[in-house]
Amino acid sequence: MISVEEALAKLLAPLEPLPVEQISIAEAVGRVLAEDIAARRTQPPFAVSAMDGYAVRAADVATVPATLKIVAEIPAGAGFGGRLGQGEAARIFTGAPLPDGADTIVIQEDAERDGDTVRVSEGAKLGTYVRRAGLDFAEGDVLLHKGARLSPRHVGLAAAMNRPWLFVHRRPVVGILSTGDEVVMPGEPIGPHQIVSSNALALAAFVTACGGVPVGLGNAPDDAHALRRFAAGARGVDLLVSTGGVSVGEHDLVRGVLSEDGLAIDFWEIAMRPGKPLMSGSYRATPMIGLPGNPVSTLVCSLLFVKPAMERLAGVPDGAEPGQFARLGRDLKPNDRRQDYLRSRLGRAADGVLEATPFEVQDSSMMRPLAGSDCLVVRPPHAPAAAAGTMVPIVTFPGGAWPL
Ligand code: AMP
Ligand code: MG
C-alpha cells in the first residue's frame, strides 16, 4: 500500500495539459486559459463621469452657491467637441466622457437647474466623481494568466479587454466504465439479486461539475470477454475511469483481464479508507483510474484523484487550493495505518468557528450520509485519539466547474 500523497504524485506525473483550442468568449466560463491575456483597450478609454450631474471646473465651485452657464449636454456614448471655459458647466450623465476643460463632477442632487444655468449649492473637490482614463487598466496590461479557470468575473474582464475569442485547453473527455453483474442502470429491468447502479451517473455528474466531458462506456458484466469489449470503448478518451472490480475477489476482473489487453498498472492499493483498492495506470496508452465499486469510495476517490487528474489535463497549475481546517465536533478514536476520510457535517459553532462533526457510521456503501455531508475530515495514518475541539484538516466538496 502506498500513501495518498505518493499515489497522487504518481498519478499526476505522466499527465500533460491537453492541446489548445480557440473558442468564443461566450463559451469561456469554466475553461482554462492556455495563454496570458493582455488588454486590447484601455479602460475607461477616456475620463468619464461616475455620476449624473454637471461637469465643472473645481475652481468655479470653490465658493458656493455658484451659478454656472450650461454649454453642453453629454449623455453616455456622445462627446462634446468644445472646451469648457471659466464659469461654464456641462450637463453630464454616468459614463459620458468628461469634456475638455472640466475636472470635476457636481452630482445633480447638489445642483439646481434653471434653463441655461445651474446653481451649485455644494462644492466639490478637484476630481470628484471623475474616473480617469486607464483607472481600471491600460492597453497592453496582462490581466489574465495562463492556467486560470475562467469565472464569470474573468469573462467580464476579458470582454472589457476587447477579447472576443480566447485560447484554452481542450476539456478532458472522461470515459466512464462501470462493472458488475449485479448493477443495472436506473429505470432498467432489474433481476431479483441486482442493485441499481449509482456510480456511472454520479461519476458523469462529477466529471461535468469538474469541467470535463463524460462519455458513458456502459456497464460491463463480470466476464472477461465482455469486460474487454466494453473497455475497448475507451479509444480516444483522455482519461478512463472504471468503477468496481479492482478488489481481491475472484470476480474482480479489471486488473487481471485488462492487464492482458494493454493495461499497464502503475500502482494498486492505497493506505486510505474508503478507497483502498484504487488502481492507476494506463490502458492502451490512455491514463486510467480504477475506482473501487462502493459508491462512497467511488466519489471520495473521485474528489481526491479524478479531480486533480482532470485539472492537470485541463491545464490548471498544481497547489492552487489552500488547505482547510475545522474544529472537531466529536471525539475520535486513534486511527490505524490507513488515512481516513470521514463523512462529516460542517456548521458554525456559537463562537463562529467552523465545526466538522463526523457521522457515527462510516460505511463506504452508504450514500445517504455521503449526500448529507458537507466535508470529509482527514485522519492521517496512526493519528492519535482526537478530542472534540481539536482542529483537524478537512476536504470540502467544491461547488462546481468554476468559482463564481
Ligand atoms: P466491487 O468493487 O466490484 O467489489 O464492488 C464493491 C461494492 O460496490 C459491491 O457491493 C457492489 O455491488 C457495489 N457497486 C459496484 N458497482 C456499483 C455501481 N455502479 N453502483 C452502485 N454500487 C456498485
Ligand atoms: Mg464488482
List keywords for this structure.
six-stranded mixed β-sheet; binds magnesium ion; elongated; Molybdenum Cofactor Biosythetic Enzyme, Chain A; alpha/beta; about 15% helix; Molybdopterin biosynthesis moea protein, domain 2; about 400 residues; binds adenosine monophosphate; Molybdopterin biosynthesis moeA protein, domain 3; 7 helices
Determine the structural class based on helices, strands and strand pairing: alpha/beta
Helical fraction equals 10-25%
CATH superfamily of the largest domain: MoaB/Mog-like domain
How far apart are the termini? 38 Å
Write down the CATH topology of the largest domain: Molybdenum Cofactor Biosythetic Enzyme, Chain A
Count of helical stretches: 7
For the report, how would you describe the main beta sheet?
6 strands, mixed
Rg on CA atoms, Å: 30 Å
Count of distinct structural domains:
4
Global outline? elongated
What would CATH call the class of the largest domain? Alpha Beta
- What is the spatial order of strands in the main beta sheet? 7-4-6-5-9-8
Mean pLDDT score: 97
Attached small molecules: adenosine monophosphate, magnesium ion
Number of strands: 26
Write up what this structure looks like:
There is one protein chain. With 404 residues, the chain is α/β, with parallel strands linked by helices. The protein has 4 domains: 4-16 and 171-314, MoaB/Mog-like domain (Molybdenum Cofactor Biosythetic Enzyme, Chain A), CATH 3.40.980.10; 21-43 and 148-169, Molybdopterin biosynthesis moea protein, domain 2 (Alpha-Beta Complex), CATH 3.90.105.10; 48-131, Beta Complex (Molybdopterin biosynthesis moeA protein, domain 3); 324-396, Beta-clip, CATH 2.40.340.10. The protein contains 7 helices and 26 strands. The protein has a 6-stranded mixed β-sheet with strand order 7-4-6-5-9-8, with no helix packed on it. A 6-stranded mixed β-sheet has the order 16-13-17-21-20-18, sandwiched between helices. A 5-stranded mixed beta barrel has the order 22-24-23-25-26. The longest helix has 20 residues, at 295-314. The structure holds adenosine monophosphate (AMP) and magnesium ion (MG).
